[in-house]
Amino acid sequence: MYKYQFRVLELGYGQKELLIEFEDKGKEILSTFLESDVSAFKNYVFEAIGKVLSGNSEYEELNGNVCGVEINKDMTQIYDNLAEDGMGNWCEIETQELRELVDIWCNELKRFKEQQK
Question: Which domain of life does the protein's organism represent (predicted)?
Answer without folding.
Answer: Bacteria
